Amino acid sequence: MIMLRWFTVTVLLLAALPAMGESLPTFFGRSGQFIELTPKRPAPDVRFLDETGARRHLAEFRGKAIVLNIWATWCPPCVYEMPALARLAEAYRDAPLEVVAISIDRDGLRAVKPFFRRHGLEGLRIYLDPNQESIFTTTDDRRDDALPLYGLPVTFFIDQRGILVGYLTGAAEWDAEDVRRFLTHLQDAGDPVPSSR
């Protein structure tokens, strides 16, 4: 009887292993591949500003999957991907996914607002970090409330529970089918929690 229970428990655990250890689908950007973090960890509560100058926190978006893109107006790969990122934000407007594109331009809104107008980026909200508080560039600068700047652009992916699952360095084709498949999986990963928005 004990042996039968042990066998049953073992079979059930083995059947659950693929689901428990299931990796996210992968995709490629223009210059790199999505890197899945292992082990995954809670995303830092990054701070930034909105267009009005109000202080925002990443935790405000809890309950949604987040595509957190760090970019600058002077970065050619960033400029290349911004129209597709705006289309992505528009396409997922009513979905449990938020596109948060944070500019690290030192001139803040003075640089970003004309850039948005010139490139017709109506689908994106303007988020700013002119003091670059949301990032660190070396291990000496590492902070618990910031993300590593591996290059520009860099995009971090956070699931609905607030878990940082991976990142992509370089521009992405945000309209590509493999990216959309990945984002659908990201939205469905984990148990959603109530949003504070």
N-to-C CA distance: 53 Å
Q: Which residue ranges are poorly predicted, with pLDDT under 50 across at least 5 consecutive positions? A: 1-21, 191-197
Instruction: Determine the structural class based on helices, strands and strand pairing.
Output: alpha/beta
Total count of domains:
1
Shape call: globular
CATH class descriptor:
Alpha Beta
Order of helices and strands: HEEEEHEHEEEEEH
> What portion of residues is helical?
25-40%
The CATH homologous superfamily name equals Glutaredoxin
Evaluate the radius of gyration.
19 Å
Work out the number of β strands: 10
Could you name the CATH topology?
Answer: Glutaredoxin
Q: Proportion of β residues?
A: 15-25%
User: Strand count, sense and closure of the main sheet?
Assistant: 8 strands, mixed
Strand order of the largest sheet: 1-10-9-4-5-6-2-3
Q: What would you say the CATH architecture is?
A: 3-Layer(aba) Sandwich
Arithmetic mean of pLDDT: 84
* Helix count from the secondary structure assignment: 4
